[in-house]
Amino acid sequence: MLDSLQNILMPKTKYIFVTGGVTSSLGKGIVSASLGKLLQARGFKVTIQKFDPYINIDPGTMNPYEHGECYVTEDGAETDLDLGHYERFLNTPTSQANNLTTGQIYYNVIKKEREGAYLGKTVQVIPHITDEIKNNFFVLGEANQYDIVITEIGGCVGDIESLPFIEAVRQARWDLGDYNSIVIHLTLVPYLKSAGELKTKPTQHSVKQLSEAGVQPNILVCRAEYPVPMDIRKKIALFCNVNVNSVIQSIDADTIYDVPLLMKKERLDEIVMEKLKLTSDIEPNLESWKAFLGKLKNPTTEVNVALVGKYVELPDAYKSIVESLIHAGAVNECKVEIKWVHAEKNQGEALMKELEEVDGILVAPGFGERGVEGKIEASIYARKSKKPFFGICLGLQCAVVGFARSVLKLEDAHSAEMKKEALNPVIDIMENQKNLKQMGGTMRLGAYNCKLKKNSLANKIYKESNIIERHRHRYEFNNKYLEQFEKAGMIASGINPESELVEIMELKDHPHFIGSQFHPELKSTVENPHPLFVSFVKAAMTYKDAK
Ligand code: GLN
Protein backbone atom coordinates (compact mmCIF):
# COMPACT_ATOMS: atom_id res chain seq x y z
CA MET A 1 0.00 0.00 0.00
CA LEU A 2 2.66 2.45 1.13
CA ASP A 3 4.77 1.42 -1.80
CA SER A 4 2.12 2.18 -4.38
CA LEU A 5 1.23 5.43 -2.60
CA GLN A 6 4.81 6.49 -2.87
CA ASN A 7 4.80 5.74 -6.58
CA ILE A 8 1.59 7.67 -7.19
CA LEU A 9 2.91 10.68 -5.33
CA MET A 10 6.20 10.76 -7.08
CA PRO A 11 6.73 11.97 -10.62
CA LYS A 12 8.25 9.80 -13.31
CA THR A 13 11.68 11.36 -12.92
CA LYS A 14 14.36 8.93 -11.77
CA TYR A 15 17.01 10.01 -9.31
CA ILE A 16 20.63 8.93 -9.15
CA PHE A 17 22.64 9.94 -6.11
CA VAL A 18 26.42 9.91 -6.35
CA THR A 19 28.40 9.79 -3.12
CA GLY A 20 32.09 9.43 -2.48
CA GLY A 21 34.24 7.78 0.15
CA VAL A 22 37.84 7.14 1.26
CA THR A 23 39.20 10.40 -0.15
CA SER A 24 38.22 13.44 -2.13
CA SER A 25 39.32 14.02 -5.74
CA LEU A 26 38.18 10.60 -6.95
CA GLY A 27 36.42 12.20 -9.89
CA LYS A 28 32.77 12.11 -8.79
CA GLY A 29 32.08 15.08 -11.03
CA ILE A 30 33.58 13.41 -14.09
CA VAL A 31 31.86 10.08 -13.41
CA SER A 32 28.52 11.88 -12.92
CA ALA A 33 29.04 13.86 -16.12
CA SER A 34 30.08 10.72 -18.01
CA LEU A 35 27.06 8.76 -16.82
CA GLY A 36 24.88 11.75 -17.72
CA LYS A 37 26.42 11.77 -21.19
CA LEU A 38 25.77 8.05 -21.73
CA LEU A 39 22.15 8.31 -20.61
CA GLN A 40 21.65 11.43 -22.71
CA ALA A 41 23.08 9.54 -25.69
CA ARG A 42 20.33 6.97 -25.16
CA GLY A 43 17.69 9.64 -25.55
CA PHE A 44 16.99 10.55 -21.92
CA LYS A 45 16.70 14.13 -20.75
CA VAL A 46 19.29 14.39 -18.02
CA THR A 47 20.50 17.07 -15.64
CA ILE A 48 23.16 16.94 -12.96
CA GLN A 49 23.17 18.90 -9.72
CA LYS A 50 25.74 19.26 -6.98
CA PHE A 51 25.13 19.62 -3.24
CA ASP A 52 28.14 20.94 -1.36
CA PRO A 53 28.47 20.58 2.39
CA TYR A 54 30.30 23.85 3.12
CA ILE A 55 28.75 26.84 4.89
CA ASN A 56 29.43 29.51 2.26
CA ILE A 57 26.25 30.37 0.39
CA ASP A 58 28.24 29.81 -2.80
CA PRO A 59 31.91 29.59 -3.81
CA GLY A 60 31.83 33.18 -5.10
CA THR A 61 33.50 34.53 -1.98
CA MET A 62 36.17 31.83 -1.88
CA ASN A 63 39.73 32.10 -3.03
CA PRO A 64 40.57 29.88 -6.05
CA TYR A 65 43.29 28.29 -3.89
CA GLU A 66 40.49 27.06 -1.63
CA HIS A 67 38.03 25.93 -4.18
CA GLY A 68 39.40 26.18 -7.70
CA GLU A 69 37.50 28.11 -10.31
CA CYS A 70 34.10 29.60 -9.61
CA TYR A 71 31.82 28.59 -12.45
CA VAL A 72 29.06 31.01 -13.46
CA THR A 73 25.80 29.80 -14.96
CA GLU A 74 23.62 31.53 -17.54
CA ASP A 75 21.29 32.82 -14.80
CA GLY A 76 24.20 34.31 -12.88
CA ALA A 77 24.77 31.75 -10.12
CA GLU A 78 28.33 31.44 -8.82
CA THR A 79 28.82 27.70 -8.54
CA ASP A 80 31.14 24.77 -8.10
CA LEU A 81 33.51 23.95 -10.94
CA ASP A 82 31.90 20.54 -11.40
CA LEU A 83 28.98 22.33 -13.06
CA GLY A 84 31.44 23.27 -15.77
CA HIS A 85 32.08 19.56 -16.40
CA TYR A 86 28.34 18.89 -16.50
CA GLU A 87 27.85 21.58 -19.14
CA ARG A 88 30.92 20.62 -21.17
CA PHE A 89 29.87 16.96 -21.26
CA LEU A 90 26.10 17.32 -21.69
CA ASN A 91 26.14 20.48 -23.79
CA THR A 92 23.11 21.78 -21.86
CA PRO A 93 23.07 24.76 -19.51
CA THR A 94 22.80 24.43 -15.74
CA SER A 95 21.33 27.02 -13.40
CA GLN A 96 21.16 28.24 -9.81
CA ALA A 97 19.03 25.22 -8.99
CA ASN A 98 21.90 22.87 -9.97
CA ASN A 99 24.15 23.84 -7.07
CA LEU A 100 23.25 24.03 -3.39
CA THR A 101 25.35 24.37 -0.28
CA THR A 102 24.81 23.80 3.41
CA GLY A 103 24.92 27.59 3.71
CA GLN A 104 21.99 28.02 1.33
CA ILE A 105 20.00 25.27 3.01
CA TYR A 106 20.42 26.82 6.48
CA TYR A 107 19.79 30.30 5.08
CA ASN A 108 16.45 29.14 3.61
CA VAL A 109 15.43 27.39 6.81
CA ILE A 110 16.35 30.32 9.04
CA LYS A 111 14.52 32.72 6.73
CA LYS A 112 11.42 30.55 6.91
CA GLU A 113 11.72 30.35 10.69
CA ARG A 114 11.74 34.16 10.90
CA GLU A 115 8.73 34.31 8.59
CA GLY A 116 6.90 32.02 11.00
CA ALA A 117 6.76 28.99 8.72
CA TYR A 118 7.47 26.66 11.65
CA LEU A 119 5.50 28.52 14.32
CA GLY A 120 5.21 26.53 17.52
CA LYS A 121 7.99 24.12 16.55
CA THR A 122 11.59 23.63 17.52
CA VAL A 123 13.57 23.94 14.30
CA GLN A 124 16.04 21.06 14.01
CA VAL A 125 18.50 19.40 11.66
CA ILE A 126 16.03 16.54 11.37
CA PRO A 127 13.44 17.13 9.96
CA HIS A 128 13.81 20.77 8.93
CA ILE A 129 17.27 20.83 7.40
CA THR A 130 16.90 17.39 5.86
CA ASP A 131 13.46 18.32 4.47
CA GLU A 132 14.93 21.44 2.91
CA ILE A 133 17.70 19.35 1.32
CA LYS A 134 15.18 16.80 0.08
CA ASN A 135 12.90 19.45 -1.42
CA ASN A 136 15.85 20.79 -3.30
CA PHE A 137 16.80 17.32 -4.56
CA PHE A 138 13.46 17.31 -6.35
CA VAL A 139 13.18 20.89 -7.66
CA LEU A 140 14.56 20.18 -11.13
CA GLY A 141 12.76 16.86 -11.47
CA GLU A 142 9.42 18.27 -10.34
CA ALA A 143 9.48 20.86 -13.08
CA ASN A 144 9.16 17.64 -15.11
CA GLN A 145 11.71 18.65 -17.62
CA TYR A 146 14.00 15.74 -16.95
CA ASP A 147 13.77 11.96 -17.12
CA ILE A 148 16.79 11.60 -14.89
CA VAL A 149 18.31 13.87 -12.24
CA ILE A 150 21.81 12.97 -11.10
CA THR A 151 22.73 14.46 -7.73
CA GLU A 152 26.37 14.57 -6.75
CA ILE A 153 26.94 14.92 -3.02
CA GLY A 154 30.16 16.83 -2.39
CA GLY A 155 32.68 15.78 0.25
CA CYS A 156 33.23 12.33 1.69
CA VAL A 157 30.96 9.94 3.50
CA GLY A 158 31.90 10.07 7.17
CA ASP A 159 32.52 13.81 7.23
CA ILE A 160 30.47 15.44 9.98
CA GLU A 161 29.19 18.07 7.57
CA SER A 162 27.97 15.46 5.07
CA LEU A 163 25.67 13.72 7.54
CA PRO A 164 22.46 15.72 6.88
CA PHE A 165 22.90 15.17 3.14
CA ILE A 166 23.34 11.42 3.52
CA GLU A 167 20.29 11.30 5.80
CA ALA A 168 18.35 13.29 3.20
CA VAL A 169 19.42 10.77 0.53
CA ARG A 170 18.21 7.95 2.79
CA GLN A 171 14.82 9.61 3.25
CA ALA A 172 14.52 10.64 -0.39
CA ARG A 173 15.05 7.05 -1.45
CA TRP A 174 12.27 5.96 0.88
CA ASP A 175 9.97 8.68 -0.42
CA LEU A 176 10.69 7.77 -4.01
CA GLY A 177 9.96 4.08 -3.61
CA ASP A 178 11.46 1.15 -5.44
CA TYR A 179 13.14 1.54 -8.82
CA ASN A 180 12.96 5.33 -8.76
CA SER A 181 16.36 5.99 -7.28
CA ILE A 182 19.78 4.46 -6.89
CA VAL A 183 22.98 5.34 -5.09
CA ILE A 184 26.33 5.11 -6.82
CA HIS A 185 29.26 5.21 -4.42
CA LEU A 186 32.77 6.09 -5.57
CA THR A 187 35.67 4.63 -3.67
CA LEU A 188 39.37 4.10 -4.02
CA VAL A 189 41.02 0.73 -4.60
CA PRO A 190 44.67 1.52 -3.96
CA TYR A 191 47.60 -0.55 -5.12
CA LEU A 192 50.10 -1.36 -2.39
CA LYS A 193 53.46 -1.71 -4.03
CA SER A 194 55.11 -3.58 -1.19
CA ALA A 195 52.31 -6.16 -1.17
CA GLY A 196 51.95 -6.12 -4.93
CA GLU A 197 48.18 -6.04 -4.50
CA LEU A 198 45.07 -3.97 -4.95
CA LYS A 199 43.45 -3.39 -1.57
CA THR A 200 39.72 -3.56 -0.91
CA LYS A 201 39.62 -2.60 2.77
CA PRO A 202 39.20 1.17 2.27
CA THR A 203 36.18 0.42 0.06
CA GLN A 204 34.74 -1.95 2.62
CA HIS A 205 35.10 0.66 5.35
CA SER A 206 33.62 3.38 3.28
CA VAL A 207 30.58 1.33 2.30
CA LYS A 208 30.19 0.25 5.91
CA GLN A 209 30.08 3.88 6.95
CA LEU A 210 27.48 4.65 4.32
CA SER A 211 25.41 1.64 5.36
CA GLU A 212 25.54 2.72 9.00
CA ALA A 213 23.85 5.91 7.88
CA GLY A 214 21.11 3.77 6.36
CA VAL A 215 22.17 4.06 2.73
CA GLN A 216 23.04 0.89 0.86
CA PRO A 217 24.79 1.72 -2.40
CA ASN A 218 23.54 -0.05 -5.53
CA ILE A 219 26.66 0.43 -7.60
CA LEU A 220 30.29 0.88 -6.61
CA VAL A 221 32.65 2.73 -8.90
CA CYS A 222 36.16 1.87 -7.86
CA ARG A 223 38.82 4.36 -8.78
CA ALA A 224 42.08 2.53 -9.36
CA GLU A 225 45.43 2.97 -10.99
CA TYR A 226 45.36 -0.62 -12.24
CA PRO A 227 42.58 -2.82 -13.64
CA VAL A 228 40.41 -4.34 -10.91
CA PRO A 229 40.30 -8.10 -11.63
CA MET A 230 37.26 -10.31 -11.13
CA ASP A 231 38.42 -11.86 -7.85
CA ILE A 232 38.80 -8.41 -6.30
CA ARG A 233 35.41 -7.37 -7.65
CA LYS A 234 33.87 -10.49 -6.13
CA LYS A 235 35.45 -9.74 -2.79
CA ILE A 236 34.17 -6.16 -2.84
CA ALA A 237 30.72 -7.34 -3.92
CA LEU A 238 30.50 -9.89 -1.12
CA PHE A 239 31.64 -7.57 1.66
CA CYS A 240 29.74 -4.54 0.42
CA ASN A 241 26.48 -6.27 -0.40
CA VAL A 242 26.25 -5.40 -4.08
CA ASN A 243 26.03 -7.51 -7.24
CA VAL A 244 29.34 -8.42 -8.81
CA ASN A 245 28.35 -6.73 -12.05
CA SER A 246 27.66 -3.56 -10.06
CA VAL A 247 31.29 -3.28 -8.98
CA ILE A 248 32.90 -1.34 -11.75
CA GLN A 249 36.31 0.13 -12.23
CA SER A 250 37.27 3.68 -13.04
CA ILE A 251 40.86 3.56 -14.21
CA ASP A 252 43.02 6.66 -14.43
CA ALA A 253 42.51 7.97 -17.95
CA ASP A 254 44.71 9.97 -20.34
CA THR A 255 42.00 12.58 -20.56
CA ILE A 256 38.73 13.15 -18.70
CA TYR A 257 37.00 12.90 -22.08
CA ASP A 258 37.87 9.17 -22.19
CA VAL A 259 35.77 8.50 -19.11
CA PRO A 260 32.33 8.24 -20.82
CA LEU A 261 33.73 5.53 -23.10
CA LEU A 262 35.44 3.76 -20.21
CA MET A 263 32.16 3.83 -18.26
CA LYS A 264 30.34 2.48 -21.28
CA LYS A 265 32.82 -0.38 -21.50
CA GLU A 266 32.01 -1.15 -17.87
CA ARG A 267 28.30 -1.01 -18.80
CA LEU A 268 27.56 1.63 -16.18
CA ASP A 269 24.64 3.05 -18.16
CA GLU A 270 23.08 -0.38 -18.71
CA ILE A 271 23.40 -1.33 -15.04
CA VAL A 272 21.82 1.99 -14.03
CA MET A 273 18.94 1.49 -16.47
CA GLU A 274 18.38 -2.03 -15.24
CA LYS A 275 18.20 -0.90 -11.63
CA LEU A 276 15.87 1.99 -12.44
CA LYS A 277 13.77 -0.15 -14.79
CA LEU A 278 14.42 2.26 -17.60
CA THR A 279 14.30 1.14 -21.19
CA SER A 280 15.51 2.73 -24.36
CA ASP A 281 15.69 1.42 -27.89
CA ILE A 282 18.39 3.91 -28.69
CA GLU A 283 21.92 2.57 -28.84
CA PRO A 284 24.03 5.41 -27.47
CA ASN A 285 25.26 7.55 -30.29
CA LEU A 286 28.71 8.72 -29.32
CA GLU A 287 30.03 9.24 -32.83
CA SER A 288 30.69 12.96 -32.47
CA TRP A 289 32.29 12.38 -29.08
CA LYS A 290 34.57 9.74 -30.58
CA ALA A 291 35.39 12.05 -33.48
CA PHE A 292 36.40 14.72 -30.94
CA LEU A 293 38.57 12.21 -29.08
CA GLY A 294 40.13 11.06 -32.35
CA LYS A 295 41.19 14.59 -33.16
CA LEU A 296 42.29 15.29 -29.60
CA LYS A 297 44.56 12.26 -29.59
CA ASN A 298 45.94 12.61 -33.10
CA PRO A 299 47.04 16.21 -33.48
CA THR A 300 48.87 17.12 -36.66
CA THR A 301 50.60 20.11 -35.14
CA GLU A 302 51.38 21.74 -31.81
CA VAL A 303 51.41 25.27 -30.39
CA ASN A 304 52.77 26.69 -27.22
CA VAL A 305 50.48 29.13 -25.48
CA ALA A 306 51.29 31.17 -22.39
CA LEU A 307 48.62 31.35 -19.72
CA VAL A 308 49.54 34.37 -17.64
CA GLY A 309 47.89 34.30 -14.24
CA LYS A 310 48.54 34.44 -10.54
CA TYR A 311 47.02 31.12 -9.51
CA VAL A 312 49.17 29.07 -11.89
CA GLU A 313 50.27 26.66 -9.15
CA LEU A 314 46.70 25.43 -9.11
CA PRO A 315 45.43 24.69 -12.62
CA ASP A 316 41.93 24.05 -11.19
CA ALA A 317 41.71 27.83 -10.76
CA TYR A 318 41.58 28.10 -14.56
CA LYS A 319 39.70 24.86 -15.23
CA SER A 320 37.29 26.15 -17.87
CA ILE A 321 40.04 28.01 -19.73
CA VAL A 322 42.18 24.88 -19.87
CA GLU A 323 39.24 22.78 -21.09
CA SER A 324 38.29 25.41 -23.68
CA LEU A 325 41.84 25.31 -25.04
CA ILE A 326 41.55 21.51 -25.26
CA HIS A 327 38.27 21.80 -27.20
CA ALA A 328 39.73 24.45 -29.50
CA GLY A 329 42.92 22.43 -30.00
CA ALA A 330 40.94 19.35 -31.02
CA VAL A 331 38.92 21.26 -33.63
CA ASN A 332 42.15 22.57 -35.08
CA GLU A 333 43.82 19.14 -34.77
CA CYS A 334 46.49 20.89 -32.79
CA LYS A 335 47.99 20.02 -29.44
CA VAL A 336 47.87 23.11 -27.26
CA GLU A 337 50.75 23.05 -24.84
CA ILE A 338 50.09 25.47 -21.98
CA LYS A 339 53.04 27.32 -20.57
CA TRP A 340 52.02 28.52 -17.12
CA VAL A 341 53.45 31.95 -16.53
CA HIS A 342 53.30 33.40 -13.05
CA ALA A 343 52.24 37.03 -13.41
CA GLU A 344 53.58 38.06 -10.02
CA LYS A 345 56.92 36.26 -9.97
CA ASN A 346 57.79 37.16 -13.57
CA GLN A 347 58.11 40.78 -14.55
CA GLY A 348 60.45 42.75 -16.79
CA GLU A 349 63.23 40.67 -18.32
CA ALA A 350 62.12 37.47 -16.66
CA LEU A 351 58.62 37.82 -18.10
CA MET A 352 59.89 38.58 -21.60
CA LYS A 353 62.03 35.47 -21.41
CA GLU A 354 59.00 33.39 -20.49
CA LEU A 355 57.00 34.81 -23.38
CA GLU A 356 59.71 34.79 -26.01
CA GLU A 357 59.14 31.26 -27.26
CA VAL A 358 55.35 31.06 -27.08
CA ASP A 359 52.99 31.27 -30.05
CA GLY A 360 50.16 33.01 -28.23
CA ILE A 361 49.48 34.82 -24.96
CA LEU A 362 46.35 34.41 -22.90
CA VAL A 363 45.98 36.73 -19.92
CA ALA A 364 43.70 35.23 -17.32
CA PRO A 365 40.85 36.68 -15.23
CA GLY A 366 41.42 37.60 -11.62
CA PHE A 367 40.86 39.96 -8.73
CA GLY A 368 43.07 42.30 -6.77
CA GLU A 369 46.45 43.82 -7.32
CA ARG A 370 48.76 40.85 -7.07
CA GLY A 371 50.25 39.97 -10.46
CA VAL A 372 48.54 42.80 -12.31
CA GLU A 373 51.72 44.53 -13.48
CA GLY A 374 52.96 41.28 -15.02
CA LYS A 375 49.66 40.91 -16.88
CA ILE A 376 49.83 44.47 -18.16
CA GLU A 377 53.40 43.96 -19.37
CA ALA A 378 52.40 40.71 -21.09
CA SER A 379 49.68 42.54 -23.03
CA ILE A 380 52.11 45.28 -24.12
CA TYR A 381 54.60 42.64 -25.23
CA ALA A 382 51.89 40.84 -27.24
CA ARG A 383 50.94 44.08 -28.98
CA LYS A 384 54.51 44.92 -29.91
CA SER A 385 55.59 41.39 -30.89
CA LYS A 386 52.35 40.82 -32.86
CA LYS A 387 51.84 37.56 -31.04
CA PRO A 388 48.20 36.45 -30.82
CA PHE A 389 46.69 37.85 -27.64
CA PHE A 390 43.55 36.87 -25.79
CA GLY A 391 42.57 38.70 -22.60
CA ILE A 392 39.71 37.46 -20.49
CA CYS A 393 37.97 39.83 -18.06
CA LEU A 394 40.86 41.14 -15.95
CA GLY A 395 43.01 40.09 -18.92
CA LEU A 396 41.12 42.55 -21.13
CA GLN A 397 41.29 45.22 -18.43
CA CYS A 398 45.07 44.80 -18.24
CA ALA A 399 45.34 45.12 -22.02
CA VAL A 400 43.36 48.38 -21.81
CA VAL A 401 45.65 49.73 -19.08
CA GLY A 402 48.70 48.59 -21.05
CA PHE A 403 47.48 50.33 -24.19
CA ALA A 404 46.67 53.54 -22.27
CA ARG A 405 50.14 53.61 -20.75
CA SER A 406 52.20 52.60 -23.77
CA VAL A 407 50.26 54.08 -26.70
CA LEU A 408 48.12 56.89 -25.29
CA LYS A 409 50.98 57.84 -22.97
CA LEU A 410 48.65 58.09 -19.98
CA GLU A 411 51.39 56.92 -17.71
CA ASP A 412 49.36 56.73 -14.53
CA ALA A 413 46.48 54.89 -16.22
CA HIS A 414 45.12 52.09 -14.10
CA SER A 415 42.05 50.21 -13.07
CA ALA A 416 40.22 51.80 -10.16
CA GLU A 417 40.21 48.35 -8.59
CA MET A 418 43.99 48.52 -8.14
CA LYS A 419 44.42 52.24 -7.67
CA LYS A 420 41.37 54.14 -6.44
CA GLU A 421 43.00 57.55 -6.88
CA ALA A 422 44.40 56.91 -10.40
CA LEU A 423 44.24 60.12 -12.46
CA ASN A 424 43.25 58.08 -15.50
CA PRO A 425 40.96 55.26 -14.38
CA VAL A 426 40.59 53.69 -17.82
CA ILE A 427 38.91 50.80 -16.06
CA ASP A 428 36.42 52.02 -13.51
CA ILE A 429 33.86 50.63 -11.13
CA MET A 430 30.42 50.27 -12.67
CA GLU A 431 27.96 52.90 -11.51
CA ASN A 432 25.59 50.39 -9.88
CA GLN A 433 28.47 48.77 -7.99
CA LYS A 434 29.57 51.91 -6.19
CA ASN A 435 27.36 51.77 -3.12
CA LEU A 436 27.15 48.04 -2.66
CA LYS A 437 27.86 46.93 0.87
CA GLN A 438 27.52 43.21 0.31
CA MET A 439 30.24 41.17 -1.44
CA GLY A 440 28.47 37.86 -2.10
CA GLY A 441 26.52 37.50 -5.35
CA THR A 442 26.62 41.20 -6.19
CA MET A 443 28.97 41.32 -9.18
CA ARG A 444 27.70 41.70 -12.72
CA LEU A 445 26.87 38.04 -13.10
CA GLY A 446 25.51 35.75 -15.77
CA ALA A 447 24.38 36.21 -19.34
CA TYR A 448 24.26 39.61 -21.07
CA ASN A 449 23.70 40.62 -24.67
CA CYS A 450 26.53 41.89 -26.78
CA LYS A 451 26.32 43.49 -30.20
CA LEU A 452 29.33 43.08 -32.44
CA LYS A 453 30.73 45.76 -34.71
CA LYS A 454 30.44 44.89 -38.39
CA ASN A 455 33.62 43.55 -39.99
CA SER A 456 35.49 43.58 -36.71
CA LEU A 457 37.68 40.61 -35.76
CA ALA A 458 35.04 39.66 -33.19
CA ASN A 459 32.36 39.70 -35.87
CA LYS A 460 34.46 37.51 -38.15
CA ILE A 461 35.22 35.09 -35.35
CA TYR A 462 31.61 34.68 -34.22
CA LYS A 463 30.12 34.92 -37.72
CA GLU A 464 27.14 36.68 -36.15
CA SER A 465 26.29 40.12 -34.91
CA ASN A 466 24.47 39.44 -31.64
CA ILE A 467 25.88 37.16 -29.01
CA ILE A 468 25.15 36.31 -25.38
CA GLU A 469 28.02 35.69 -22.99
CA ARG A 470 28.49 35.23 -19.23
CA HIS A 471 30.01 37.77 -16.89
CA ARG A 472 31.57 37.99 -13.45
CA HIS A 473 33.12 41.36 -12.61
CA ARG A 474 32.59 44.75 -10.96
CA TYR A 475 34.81 46.94 -13.14
CA GLU A 476 34.39 48.00 -16.74
CA PHE A 477 36.03 49.93 -19.53
CA ASN A 478 35.60 53.66 -18.82
CA ASN A 479 33.64 55.02 -21.79
CA LYS A 480 35.05 58.53 -21.24
CA TYR A 481 38.22 57.27 -22.89
CA LEU A 482 36.60 55.38 -25.76
CA GLU A 483 37.15 57.98 -28.46
CA GLN A 484 40.80 58.34 -27.51
CA PHE A 485 41.32 54.58 -27.63
CA GLU A 486 39.53 54.12 -30.94
CA LYS A 487 41.46 56.92 -32.60
CA ALA A 488 44.70 55.24 -31.55
CA GLY A 489 43.63 51.82 -32.88
CA MET A 490 42.07 49.94 -30.02
CA ILE A 491 38.40 49.62 -30.81
CA ALA A 492 35.35 48.47 -28.90
CA SER A 493 34.03 45.72 -31.14
CA GLY A 494 31.42 44.38 -28.72
CA ILE A 495 28.97 46.57 -26.84
CA ASN A 496 26.09 45.75 -24.54
CA PRO A 497 23.13 47.32 -26.36
CA GLU A 498 21.18 48.05 -23.16
CA SER A 499 23.91 49.67 -21.06
CA GLU A 500 26.53 50.71 -23.63
CA LEU A 501 29.16 48.86 -21.60
CA VAL A 502 32.15 47.77 -23.65
CA GLU A 503 32.31 43.97 -23.78
CA ILE A 504 35.06 43.32 -26.36
CA MET A 505 38.09 45.33 -27.40
CA GLU A 506 40.52 44.57 -30.17
CA LEU A 507 43.51 46.09 -31.91
CA LYS A 508 43.12 47.14 -35.51
CA ASP A 509 46.77 46.95 -36.41
CA HIS A 510 47.50 43.45 -35.16
CA PRO A 511 46.85 39.97 -36.55
CA HIS A 512 44.93 38.77 -33.50
CA PHE A 513 44.64 40.91 -30.39
CA ILE A 514 41.30 40.61 -28.65
CA GLY A 515 39.96 40.77 -25.13
CA SER A 516 36.54 40.15 -23.67
CA GLN A 517 34.98 41.53 -20.51
CA PHE A 518 32.91 38.33 -20.33
CA HIS A 519 34.11 34.79 -19.77
CA PRO A 520 33.87 32.81 -23.03
CA GLU A 521 35.44 29.80 -21.32
CA LEU A 522 32.16 29.22 -19.50
CA LYS A 523 30.38 28.35 -22.71
CA SER A 524 32.85 26.07 -24.48
CA THR A 525 31.68 22.46 -24.70
CA VAL A 526 32.94 19.35 -26.47
CA GLU A 527 30.17 19.72 -29.04
CA ASN A 528 30.46 23.50 -29.31
CA PRO A 529 34.03 24.65 -28.82
CA HIS A 530 34.02 28.40 -28.24
CA PRO A 531 34.80 30.45 -31.39
CA LEU A 532 37.10 32.86 -29.50
CA PHE A 533 39.27 29.97 -28.33
CA VAL A 534 39.15 28.23 -31.71
CA SER A 535 40.29 31.41 -33.39
CA PHE A 536 42.99 32.12 -30.80
CA VAL A 537 44.49 28.65 -31.31
CA LYS A 538 44.28 29.07 -35.07
CA ALA A 539 46.07 32.42 -34.81
CA ALA A 540 48.78 30.78 -32.70
CA MET A 541 49.19 28.10 -35.40
CA THR A 542 49.50 30.80 -38.07
CA TYR A 543 52.02 32.69 -35.95
CA LYS A 544 54.06 29.54 -35.45
CA ASP A 545 54.03 28.70 -39.16
CA ALA A 546 55.27 32.18 -40.04
CA LYS A 547 58.13 31.99 -37.53
N1 GLN B 1 38.64 42.12 -11.00
C1 GLN B 1 38.00 42.51 -12.20
C2 GLN B 1 36.61 43.06 -11.98
O1 GLN B 1 36.01 42.82 -10.96
C3 GLN B 1 37.97 41.37 -13.20
C4 GLN B 1 37.18 40.18 -12.76
C5 GLN B 1 37.48 38.93 -13.51
O2 GLN B 1 38.53 38.79 -14.12
N2 GLN B 1 36.58 37.96 -13.42
O3 GLN B 1 36.08 43.74 -12.82
Structure, described:
- The protein is α/β, with parallel strands linked by helices.
- The chain contains 19 helices and 23 strands.
- The strands form five sheets. Strands 13-12-14-15-23-22-21-18-19 form a nine-stranded mixed sheet, with helices on both faces.
- Strand 12 (301-309), helix 13 (319-331) and strand 13 form a beta-alpha-beta unit.
- Helix 2 packs across helix 10.
- The longest helix is centred in the N-terminal third of the chain and has 18 residues, at 125-142.
- The chain is globular, with a radius of gyration of 25 Å.
- Residues 365-367, 393-394, 417, 472-475 line the site of glutamine.
- Glutamine binds next to strand 19.
Quote the average pLDDT.
94
Number of strands: 23
Shape: globular
Largest sheet: 9 strands, mixed
Distance from N terminus to C terminus (CA atoms, Å) equals 76 Å
The largest sheet has its strands arranged as 13-12-14-15-23-22-21-18-19
* Total of helices: 19
| Percent range of helical residues | 25-40%
- What share of the residues does DSSP label as strand, in percent? 15-25%
Rg on CA atoms, Å: 25 Å
Distinct small-molecule ligands in the complex: glutamine
Which consecutive residue ranges, at least 5 long each, have pLDDT under 50? none
Which class best fits the helix and strand makeup? alpha/beta
Secondary structure: elements and pairs:
Blueprint: H1 2-9, E1 14-20, H2 28-41, E2 46-52, H3 64-67, E3 71-72, E4 78-79, H4 82-90, E5 99-101, H5 102-115, H6 125-142, E6 148-153, H7 163-176, E7 181-188, E8 191-192, E9 197-198, H8 201-212, E10 219-224, H9 230-240, E11 247-251, H10 259-265, H11 268-275, H12 287-297, E12 301-309, H13 319-331, E13 334-342, H14 348-356, E14 360-363, H15 372-385, E15 389-392, H16 394-406, E16 413-415, E17 424-429, E18 444-452, H17 457-462, E19 466-473, E20 475-477, H18 482-488, E21 490-495, E22 502-507, E23 513-516, H19 531-546
Parallel strand pairs: 1-6, 1-7, 2-5, 2-6, 7-10, 10-11, 12-13, 12-14, 14-15, 15-23, 16-17
Antiparallel strand pairs: 3-4, 8-9, 17-20, 18-19, 18-21, 21-22, 22-23
The chain binds glutamine.
